[in-house]
What we know:
The chain is built from 16 helices and eight strands.
Amino acid sequence: MRDFNFRNDTKLLFRNDIRETVSEITKGHKVMLVYGSGSIKQNGCHEDITRTLVDSGIPFIEYGGSSREFEKIEQGIRLAKTNEVTMIIGAGGASVMDSAKLMAFGFYHEPDLWDYVKGKPSYGLKRLPLALIPTYPSSGSENGLGAVTVDSRNGDFGTAYGIPADYAILCPRYSLTLDKEMTTYTGLVTLVQLSACVLGDRNRMSYDAGISYIRNVLEATKTLQNNPDDLNARGIIMLGASLSTSSRIGIGKEDNFAYDIYELEFLPEKLFGSSYRRSLTSVFPLFLKVMGKHHAEDVRKYYADAFGFDSSIEESTRKLIGLFSDFGVEMCYEGEISRKQVDDIPCQTELSKDEIFEIMNALIRK
């Protein structure tokens, strides 16, 4: 068995009602509540947090409109310092949670923050206490170490690795306000992210656990098609997203080829203006088809174990595209692309430029 680490930085708290937990973890702090466009006011999360803080006598300030934009993160850090904040709560989707991580870390490392975004080690360094509450489950940012940011002022972007939250509070009812399409994507994106961990895992226990997570997330996604109010199904997807960024699966990987999906998903974002969720979902089956030329045994085993597909990789890929399409998500894009357009986008993967173009070209509706 290979060496591996079981990471336990973040306490994962699954709650149907977060109020008592929020009161407990914020005791003795001055809190800055970080959120995005305001969806947390629609789903009830904002009221639950603020009312709890008021009732518990916890001083707090709010920072709405946050995003992965580095300029917004810098503004949040300055606000936290000016108000002598001692704890941050980030509530929302991946963008908000990533920004909250960088604010908590940047509170003590603001002058060098961009260096950490570009690869300077940050794990174990001082930061503000941090709690994250996902209201759009799928990214797993609440339980992961990464924090993505972009700086539109100069067109640069990067990911700081090594910034865990102290608490991840999972409450399925906050996702009830998502429409059918968005709810479907929470399941499919979680499935893909779990799959990236499972593919190539040589540890029997973590591989089998990962396959179980994938099957349960798939079944929960199906359940929500007809019963969107099923909180058990929403809870499974929410937990699956957190597990996809934990150290509980993928611990026996000897080759990280499956993580190349995150390099490739960025291309449709640039080529077609796609969202992350649509890009990741549409690229994944084609990624498996092409990557199967290099890792045939791993891909065939994954298809058989996760979905019961026992045919060729090409046929299994068609079945997976059909499965995703049956959920009503769009698997193709309109328009045309050139080889130069694709080649000009940085993409760190073991696949050749010909193979990358093959995947992108196959996404075009014929």
